[in-house]
Request: fold
Amino acid sequence: MSLALLVQKFGGTSVGDVGRLQHVARRIVEVKEEGNEIVVVVSAIAGETDRLLQLAHQITETPNARELDVILATGEQVAIGLLSLAIQACGSKARSFTGTQVRILTDNVHTRARILNIDVERVRQALREGEIAIVAGFQGVNVEEEVTTLGRGGSDLTAVALAAALDADICEIYTDVEGVYTADPDLVSTARKLPRVAYEEMIEVASLGARVLQARAVEYAKNYNVSIHVRSSFTRNPGTMVVQEDRDMERVAVSGIAYDKNEAKITITGVVDRPGIAAKLFGRVAESGIVVDMIVQNISQDGHTDISFTVPRSDFHKAKELVEGVAREIGANQILGDDRIAKVSIVGVGIRTHSGVAAKMFAALAAEKVNIMMISTSEIKVSCVIEEQYAELAVRVLHDTFQLGDPPAEER
Ligand code: ADP
Ligand code: ASP
Ligand code: MG
Reply:
């Protein structure tokens, strides 16, 4: 009997070069030698997925999604082979598996496929034979045997889904920071590592721009009750546990700040205010596969109103063209576009039970003369769209306002 079954995922920077791969291999072997069974999920070497995307875009601005997946999946395939070799070089047994070889079955939506089922038999067989199983992150296969990928950051999802399918004791996400922080530690030097974060909070933080975990992976973990430990590949310190919410967590209103510069805003002015207009407009946007995030509609004056909404920046031009077409049909006045925006958000399960949190956020932005263009709220978050140039300033100011940082040394 082994001590535990662990799924360990290593991100791109953790396997950034041969030296790091060897370091990771030694760490994995150590844990194996303590008597644990280990399934490793690995991402492509840092920068590789971007490089492959660029190559495709050099040939065409609109690469075919099936072919893109064929290209993108190679990054992870190289990484599993290299890591497997590095582990074997440490004198341990390892075997690599692509998504197809495991059989991580997905739907047909190339570049952002959903996992439908994982057949763990081959992985279990490797474990029974005393091997470390090394599985390619980010990739799967559909019923037609086509290679698919799971969206950017998708190796996190591979790891969580494998942990669920194998009923693993824990899913460890090894990355280049020590855990989930109150804000991006690259940006805010006083950001503090959170010992625990609730699934729901983490889903918000991730979908509002923090890269550290893929939002879909956290959703999956919540649904299947997978415990996630986010920690560093380079230090031994304990990281952040992503867990079910508990009462203690509500004591603080805001647990983190996130920001996102990947959206753009489209405004339609002078739209006739009658039933069916929003349905027509957003119906058309949805049909083209563009995902709308925030929507704001003003109250009408003289039977006319303005509608603003945000879309991923990569879909900005497509969305604007499409709206220009619909605008003629619905008799709108003008279409305005702005792709120099940022969304800044405060997140915390405590927002539910504390009052005045949103007002405090708006006041802090006002004090810096940062104009708020759009606002959206949920039970546990408040987001503001602002000019892109103020994003970093806003994050730092909000981090201070909600006193999220480490206390100065003399107060400790
Ligand atoms: P990996 O390649 O290991 O998957 P990612 O680059 O996807 O790593 O995610 C880790 C990065 O997420 C960190 O380097 C950090 O800059 C960024 N990040 C953004 N927000 C946060 C946050 N709140 N806590 C921790 N890291 C964050
Ligand atoms: N290599 C993929 C990406 O860069 C998947 C991942 O790193 O999780 O998005
Ligand atoms: Mg990642």
Q: What stands out?
A: Residues 257-401 form a domain with the VC0802-like fold (CATH 3.30.2130.10). The first strand starts at residue 5 and ends at 10.
